[in-house]
Fold this sequence. Notes:
Blueprint: H1 2-15, E1 22-26, E2 32-35, E3 50-52, E4 81-85, E5 87-89, E6 92-99, E7 103-109, E8 116-118, H2 120-125, E9 134-140, E10 143-157, E11 160-169, E12 178-181, H3 183-186, E13 189-194, E14 199-204, H4 205-208, H5 219-239, H6 246-268
Parallel strand pairs: 7-12, 8-11
Antiparallel strand pairs: 1-2, 1-3, 4-14, 5-6, 6-7, 6-10, 9-10, 10-11, 13-14
Amino acid sequence: MRHALLACALLFLLLAPVHAKIYKWTDRDGKVHFTDNMAAVPPEYREQVEEKTSTLPPSEPLPGTSGSAPSAAGQLDAVKHHVVPLQRVGDALLVEAILGSSLKSRLIVDTGATFTVIPMAAAKQLSLDLDNAAVIPLRSVSGTFLAPLTKVKSMRVGDATVRDVEVVVYDIAPEGGVGLLGMSFLGDFQVTINAEKKAMILTDLARSAGGALYGGRPEDWWRRKFRYYRRQIESLEAYFKEQASPKATKTLRYFQAELDTLDRQATQAAVPRQWRY
């Protein structure tokens, strides 16, 4: 019973961002954008942002479905998008994901979660090496604990695919049959959620960005990735300061190696130096 209450409490904390506000903004070319992440709005447009309670008016069809095209004020069809069906269970919105080549998994959509979380059973079916994985501190109502952090070679949601997705392995529900779709997958897209139509729209950042692309990625993506790895290293160094262990060393080496790899990719793509901090 205690484990069930712990999982439910953790699940409640993870579900809270599902109800985040939706922000609308228009770029200099007149293109309208929707996002549920204020940080994804370029700084020069944040003063004109409008808050919305849903991403598309009820009268408008979803991109990729039958019906008339959206008005000029919201031309979502001008960019590449992936429409993903959502299933509502209580206050949660779930999608079906394909892990690796064929393993199906139900994931709760959470744009406020840094990592995607998969159940322990799924990790075993994918033969992930958890013994040699990095670890990440997680907090629950019972305190802080360490969970394995590793990568899934590919993850597909709808027809949107991301490779080498960082995942935390942990059973967020007692039965272990559900995971969490976080920003380690969703960060490659502009996310639009239409709860009324039970759909999530994932728009490729490379196609939705109005500015210059470097290595097929916009400025916001590069800045966010570098901030993420630098902050993980800083926070983990502080966390492990008095808890030295082989796992701690391995984890710090993992994040430093990922940061170094990102820096090399940025150099090859001629990403401005000031975006890397």
